[in-house]
Structures are given as structure tokens and as C-alpha cells.
Amino acid sequence: DTTHALDALSQEGLSEEPVQQEKEAAGSGGGVGGVWEMMVAGGRKTQRRRKNYKGRSRMASMDEDDDDDETDGAEDDENGGGGGVSERQREHPFIVTEPGEVARGKKNGLDYLFHLYEQCREFLIQVQNIAKERGEKCPNKVTNQVFRFAKKAGANYINKPKMRHYVHCYALHCLDEDVSNALRRAFKERGENVGAWRQACYKPVVAIAARQGWDIDAIFNAHPRLSIWYVPTKLRQLCHAERSITAASSSITGGGPTDHLPF
Amino acid sequence: DTTHALDALSQEGLSEEPVQQEKEAAGSGGGVGGVWEMMVAGGRKTQRRRKNYKGRSRMASMDEDDDDDETDGAEDDENGGGGGVSERQREHPFIVTEPGEVARGKKNGLDYLFHLYEQCREFLIQVQNIAKERGEKCPNKVTNQVFRFAKKAGANYINKPKMRHYVHCYALHCLDEDVSNALRRAFKERGENVGAWRQACYKPVVAIAARQGWDIDAIFNAHPRLSIWYVPTKLRQLCHAERSITAASSSITGGGPTDHLPF
DNA sequence: AGAAGGACCAGTGGTCCGTA
DNA sequence: AGAAGGACCAGTGGTCCGTA
To answer: Which keywords fit this entry according to its UniProt record (chains A, B) (predicted)?
Structure first.
């Protein structure tokens, strides 16, 4: 795994080096009952998340070692409070970067985005180890439980809507890194924004599905890093729609409905 | 499949021959948009469910062909109503029967019980075919959606709590039919009730799990007819508890924790 | 008493839309 | 404007407990 080299790719400010602490926590998965608790406590040591509250209240010492759920959990929700309202910092937005390129300014690059998927996978593996240890039912996918676990372990920069949003981009990265890289370079050169790049990622994935009999679930499941992600609804719909079109036109030209195995 | 011979095993009264109509509906799975609707309508022909309302109201003609969801759906919920309360008939309770034995009186036998699991599998396959046809996400398990589908198709005698209740019994039947049959004979002979038989089904399944490295999920998944059922919580817990005990005692006697591959 | 199943509930997958 | 993510919602897995 080249995972750790990527830590450096996340940028200064909020999103700088938000990784790292889950590595201790991972352990061997051989612990006992209190593994969850151990995890959360264990994260404290090398923590480097920052919450940089910009608001009036809570300017106190939260930079280095603020991992106690009790301490910051209790007072965080000041939205409904009467007096001081603290603004919660978000992650820096993504920009289209080339492979290996570090995003500059208050931005995050796409290598960092993909790295978040790898982190989720590591959190899933931990959740699985704990579940097996306890004889509980064991998730195969990145579920709500895994996102909750990630948050508890201090990875506040990971959240479900974000991860779901870019799954098909990660899929392309997994399934055909060359095409993925080429697309990134092209969109960076053209100065496109992340939304445009994201949209463009659908087409090559659908093309891959076309070559493999249109079974996007099978394609996800066959890939060890991709199999833990739910197939995005829109990707599924695009595959289905495209298959219908292809089937219709190939039936006109006389090709069979399943001519993805040509000879 | 010997499925159809079993239809005869369901008894007179409520639970007599409640099967059969889903066979037409199954079709080739090659239909289009309206397959769901077709199903429900198609079920009408050979329907033989009876709802035998015993209450004061609704003694009308409901015996032969009352499959319109509109007709009986609207007026069924009279519990909250002021005037007439109609009592809804339940399925006959199960009794412990030998393999091949037809239950007598207002009872259902265990072959019939296991047959319900096969029916659920057929309903699942139909749901899967429809989902694939439509390019929607496709369940691998008997989900709420499948139970809803079964009900729509007229199989009112199938419901989630019942099916979940006896999963481990069906598991034993799938995994070691000889042991399952022997247990049935023994419990019938002793005049035990269904509850006692059901309880007794746990132990042999746990024993099978012990021989195969305690992974009850893997055991379920490896079996084509069992893999579509969620592992029951209690069975999972029993396997886990038993493994812990075994591991503890074998570590005392010097055996390794994974001595299920002896040589 | 033993048993069938309606109906409830906590937590899920999915993603909108108020926020920055 | 483009984008991140809190928070909501319909439908899920799980099974209790009022019913017969």
C-alpha cells in the first residue's frame, strides 16, 4: 500500500494531514471486548485534526490533543444555543489535480479524495474485525456503522454524502487507472471544475460495463477495493439506459443482444 | 425440484394448498415494465386461498376468486371500526411430523414448513428477475420487499416473523437432512411440541459450525438455498458462545484455537 | 399452554437542500 | 457559482407482544 505517502497530499488548514491516527487503532484486530473504546482512546496520541473554530466562543486549546469525545462532544452543538454561535469549519473543496500533484491553496487534490476511500476501507476492516471478534454480524460494505466508527476514531473529514458523491470516480480509478489519469490531466488542462470532472467520470465506467456484459454490480464485486462500495444509483441507471439503447440498435443491425463476446 | 409434490402436504382449512399460483407468475422473467402488475392480476386464476371470515360482517362470496386487492384490501381493517368486527383466520399451527408425513386435523407438517422456504426462494428469484430487467438494485436475500411481493402474489400465508422464526430449522434440513430427519422422528415419537423441536434444532447446526471453523455466515453462504436467508441472531450467538467455550477448554488441553483441521 | 403474525422500533441507505 | 455535509425520510431488519 502506498497509502501513507499520500498523507502529505492533503493541504494546510482544515484538510491538512487529517489521516494517520487510525493506523495505531487498526492494530491486529485481535483485541477483546473493549476494542471500540480502546480505539477511541488510542486515537488521542498522534491526533492532528484541527477544528479551528472561527466563531466567538471556544477559541481555547483545541489544536493538538483534543480527542476526548466527552470534552468536545458536549459543547459542540451550539447552533441551538442562545449566546455564542461558533462556525464549524468544512473541508477544503476538491480541485482537479493530475496524479501525484499536490493541491495548492485551500484546496484538496484528487489523490487525497481517493485516499479517503482507502481510509474508509481500513475503517471497514476494523469494524469487521471487531464484529468477528464479538460474533456479531459483519458488514461487507461501508455502512453507516463504518462512517460512525470513522467519526469516533477522529476522522471527522469523512462523511457519507461526500463519499457516496464520488464513488463512480473512485470506481474509474480502480478499474482503469490509465483512463482515470488521462481524464484528470485533460480536465485539469481545460481548467474544468470538480463537478465537470465528476460528471465526465460516468462515461468511461459505463464503457467498461459495456465491455463486460453490463453487470455493474458484478464489476464492483469483482474488484477487492471497489466491492465494499454500493453501486451509485445514477451509475446503475446510466448502465441500464445505455444497455437498452445498445440492445435496440444492435437488434436492428442484426447483432445479438449479448455480443460483448465477439469472435 | 420436488417442490410440487409437497403442495399436497398442506392441510385442509386455511392452510390447505395455499401454493401453486406463483408458478404462472414466475414466467421466464423476460417481461417488461408491467411484470409486477401482471403478477398480481395473473394470480387470480388458480387462486385457492380462503379467508373464511368468521365474524358477523363480510360473510359474502369470498371463497373462490377473491384476489382483487381493491375489493378486500379496503374493508379488511375493521379493528378500529365501530360496528362489525371480523376475525381474521390464521394459518394452522405446525406440528412435528416425520419426513413425508402429512399432518392431520387443523395442523401443518414440517415438510410444509420447509416448503414455505422454497416458495420464498422462488419469490426472491422473481423479484431478482424483475429488478435485473429494470436495472434496479437486486436483493440477494429474502428481504421485506420479497415478503411484500409474496403477499401481493397472493401468498398471504407467508410472513416475515414466521419465516425468521424457523430459519435455523430449515438450515439443519439443508445442511444435514439425515440429522434433521432423525431429529424429527425422535421428537415426534416423544410427542414433543413444535417449540421443543425448534429449540432442539440449534444444537446440531452449532455442531456443524464447530466442524467447519465456526463461521456460520460462510456455512449459510456456501449453500445455494440457505444463502438467501439471514443468519438468525440467536444461532450466531450460540455459535460464538460455543466457540469461546471450546477455545478456552482446548487451550487448557493444549489444542490450538483452530484445530478443526486435524491430521 | 403453545403458537401465528400485526405492528412497532432503532438504526439504514440514500440524498436533498440549507449553508458557507 | 460551485461545493461540502447536516439532517431528514422512506423503507429495512429484527422481533415483541397483543391475539386467538
So the answer is: Activator, Developmental protein, DNA-binding, Nucleus, Transcription, Transcription regulation
